[in-house]
Amino acid sequence: MPQSVVRRAFVASLPVLMGYLSMGMAWGVLFTTQVPQAGPVAAGVVSAATISGSMQFAAVEIVKNAANYSLGLIALLAILINIRYCAYGLPFIEEFKRYPWYLRWYLVCALTDETYALQVQCPYSGGGRSRYLFCIAFFDECYWIAGTVIGAAAGKLITFDTTGIDFSMAALFIVILVDQCREKSNRIPAITGGVITAAVWGFFFLFLPGHVNKMLFPAMALIVSSLLFMRKKLEAAAS
Fold first, then answer.
1. What's the pLDDT band for 233 if we cut at 50, 70, 90?
2. Alpha-carbon distance values, 115 to 3, 91, 105, 144 (Å)
3. Left, alpha or beta for 126 (phi > 0: left; psi -120 to 50: alpha)?
4. What is the mean pLDDT of residues 180-208?
5. What DSSP line would sit under the chain, residue for residue?
6. Contact 220, 81 (CB under 8 A)
7. Do 88 and 111 meet the contact criterion of CB atoms below 8 Å apart?
8. DSSP per-residue codes, 2-17
9. For residue 32, is pLDDT > 70?
């Protein structure tokens, strides 16, 4: 593989390195402190198999309260949490079909928010393009796995209270929400998601205080349903 492609992909992925290491470490600490039987190896395996930060944060709660979650509910939650990747993949459908099956499936499975943002800005065409897309996906995956393993190892050594560290993912999405609201074309979906999430959380907090940790599914279901209902309006606004 030409060094120029690898080097360029690595340089482009450095901002992701900073974000994934810090966020991955937060998840690793949360994972091993909330699930004491887990360790760095388990964290690395989960990260390599999942490659979805938001789902992994949700999975910690699922593992802790496994009796409250059926396999069907877990699968449905995974679909709702990661459904945005279906939209991300649309621009690559025809292109990925031309790649060898092993590369195609790896690129599909390794797709994340940050990876997509870098891949759509690929400066290459032809063979260089496929190599660049692979390098971006591979580097980003390595950053995330490394961060979670480091965090998991640190979590085994931490003796102080880590309550609140799970808010790091919520904080990240709040920042993303604010950033999305700056773009006029994104304001309706962003505000819809923010308002519905706040409303569902408020409902659970006031009327079902012992079940706030179960708000994720109804919130995601309402958001997806609302956006589908407003689809024509959103498409018209985008055009």
1. confident
2. 20, 14, 15, 11
3. left
4. 80
5. --HHHHHHHHHHHHHHHHHHHHHHHHHHHHHHHHSTT--HHHHHHHHHHH--HHHHHHHHHHHHTGGG--HHHHHHHHHHHHTHHHHHHGGGHHHHHTS-HHHHHHHHHT--HHHHHHHTT----THHHHHHHHHHHHHHHHHHHHHHHHHHHHHTT--S--TTTTHHHHHHHHHHHHHHHTSGGGHHHHHHHHHHHHHHHHHHHHH-GGGGGG-HHHHHHHHHHHHHHTHHHHHHHH-
6. yes
7. yes
8. -HHHHHHHHHHHHHHH
9. yes
Which tokens is 205 given?
């907090």
Q: Which residues contact 96 (CB under 8 A, 6 or more apart)?
A: 104, 107, 108
The residue written with tokens 């991300």 in the block is 88
Residue 127, Cβ density class (10 Å: 0-12 exposed, 13-18 middle, ≥19 buried): exposed
Asked whether residue 1 carries a pLDDT value surpassing 60, the answer given is: no
In this structure, what token pair is assigned to residue 145? 């796995």
Query: Residue 140's pLDDT band (boundaries 50, 70, 90)?
Result: very high
Cα–Cα distance for residue pair 137/133, rounded to 1 Å: 6
Cα angle, residue 164 at apex, residues 207 and 74 outer, rounded to 5°? 65
Among residues 80, 79, 85, the alpha carbon closest in space to that of 107 is found at: 85
Tokens coding 156: 């085994």
What is the pTM for the complete model shown? 0.73
HSE, side-chain direction, 13 A CA sphere, residue 6? 3
- Give mean pLDDT, residues 26-39: 87
